[in-house]
Amino acid sequence: MIARNLSSEMKRAIVGGTIGTVIEWYDFAAYGFLAAILGKVFFPSQNPTVSLLASFATFGVAFFMRPIGGILFGSLGDRFGRRSAFTWSIILMSCLTFLIGCLPTYASIGIAAPALLVLLRLLQALCAGGELTGAYTFVGEYASTKRRGYESSWTEAGAISGFLLGSLCAFVLSATLSQSELVAWGWRIPFWCAAPLGAVGVYLRMRMGESPAFEVMKEKGLIVSAPIGEAVRYSRVPLFQAFGIAIYQNVGIYIILTYMPTYFTTQLHFSQMQSMLSSVISMALAILFMPIAGAWSDRVGRRRVLGWSCGIALVLTYPLFLLMSQHNFGLALLAHVATSILVGIFLGPIPATMAELFPTNIRYGGMSLAYNISVAVFGGFAPFIATYLIASTKNPLSPSYYVIGSAVLTLITLASMVETSRTPLKENANAVPSMPLGMDEGMSSVEEGSE
């Protein structure tokens, strides 16, 4: 629950900004948690691994559209306003997800079924490219200087809540339907649920005002006609830094939170119910730690919280995967919870950190470009890579290497960054960088209004 001491305006910004991330990640989670079922429905094969790989490949290919969507919606958001851009993203995302639930199967129309699935996934990813970073931007610009980490962390908590909602839906389906019923029609239900969720999201978004920082920027005439080009020209270092810190973020999300139900059933040989139970508990605890970590970063700095969580993950990921493989559900659950909490702690300060890297007039576009390229390269194919690594090495612990490698790259990125917590947001791409922690902590007029 959002803290009571936040202003009503800040609460509305958080709820309005977060609702879309819930729906976006629910939509993606629905596919991830049903990957094994969808493999049978759309990619039937005598070899279950081939079906699963085909299903995850479809999941991953769609992510190449994310940067294009980031450029499109990010540019619209920087030129015409944050609210309109990510309201349209939620409308289109919900409609496309509903249509996936209406698709005929391979048994009905043959190869056209997986072709239509891939097309809808591509369009879905295009819309998703502007949603999460739009929420980062919108809430970050409403947030106060001293509590931006905490207040912005709710957007990421909303995203993982979407994962949790998707896993709960899959858990209920697994508990109430047989395997044959899931394959026949049960898999459609989570996708159909996107329509009412989307309607709620659009209603809440339409009641929001525009970001005050965007309004000030508009009044000062700082809006640029080509924000992506401006970002590449003036903010190359922040672009690379946003790309780098998103590496562990995305690998952690898509290995620890999305791929784990499949890993529990196909590699650890636990039941569908056990795998879903583990996911529900792990994600709930990860969400709990996000605002705590966000608030912590307001006190000790973003780099310190991100660095410690990433460093501990570097050391503990392999031992925790080893603990999972002991054929004991209690130990596997404990290990899954531990890895998820580490990811949750890392995710808490991320929204504020991303927003603080970029100036207002290119924030949405620059962040969307960098983040979504990182998602496409490291996140979307994470489940596919994990499945392939296990199949090729015959080592069920091999996905841990991918997580460890991502932690190393993100730690290198963090070493190149200066601390940005408790500093005013920059207004334009030519602005002097924010002053370091310990110097003037005066807020801009926009931020004063959100205290």
- CATH topology tier name: Growth Hormone, Chain: A
Going by helix content, strand content and strand pairing, the class is mainly alpha
CATH homologous superfamily (4th level) name: MFS general substrate transporter like domains
Number of domain modules: 1
Key attributes of the depicted protein:
single chain; 23 helices; MFS transporter; 451 residues; Growth Hormone, Chain: A
Layout of strands and helices, then pairs:
Blueprint: H1 8-33, H2 35-42, H3 48-61, H4 66-80, H5 82-102, H6 106-109, H7 112-128, H8 131-142, H9 148-176, H10 179-186, H11 188-192, H12 194-206, H13 212-219, H14 227-234, H15 236-266, H16 272-300, H17 302-324, H18 329-347, H19 350-357, H20 363-379, H21 382-393, H22 399-415, H23 445-448
Describe this structure in words.
This is MFS transporter. By secondary structure, the protein is mainly α. It has a single domain, classed as MFS general substrate transporter like domains (Growth Hormone, Chain: A), CATH 1.20.1250.20. Helix 15 packs antiparallel against helix 18 and helix 15 packs antiparallel against helix 22. It is globular, with a radius of gyration of 21 Å. The C terminus is likely disordered.
Short description:
This is MFS transporter. This protein is an all-alpha fold.
